[in-house]
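HUMAN:
Just now I want nothing more than another pair of eyes on a protein record. I would be glad if you read both lines and explained how they fit together. I have put the entry right below:
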Amino acid sequence: MSDESERANELLTKYQQFERLGLERWERKAIEMRADGYTYGDIVAEVAKMGKGVKEETLRGYFYHAGKLKPALELWREIRGIEAMAEARQELKQAVKLATMTLLALMRPRQSGAVRLGAAKEVLDRNLGKPRQSMELSGEGFSRDAEKLEKIIGILTEGEGDERQQEQGERSGEGDR
């Protein structure tokens, strides 16, 4: 089963769970508004238009930890989250098409060689993966390079010991004066 059909099934299941809660019309409206960030005062005013008189404090209690609308609100937020993700994926699919068309346009002969090469590398890297770079750390070549490095380090540090002894000797002689 594809990711899309799994998400569709999950969404359908959540909607069915929400329907089974047997909410009244005003309760559904209150849940939708609360999920959208409306204040309790705004919700009270809206449900009053629907003929349901409920006090703001009572409404707060319905949405509190163990309140009767709290589980429904959480479920509604899950549904909204799944819907938002589906919308975002759809928008990204359209952006991928545009990005692909842009890269292909950059590969046309009228572009500079550097631009065409860069676009071609992007297309290949994204479809085939970037080429791996490896280093040989053993064998005869490595041994010779390591020996050369040791010689260079020896040359650079060769005079350091003598200079340190000379500096220490000068310091100790200062105290004799």
Remarks:
- The radius of gyration is 36 Å.
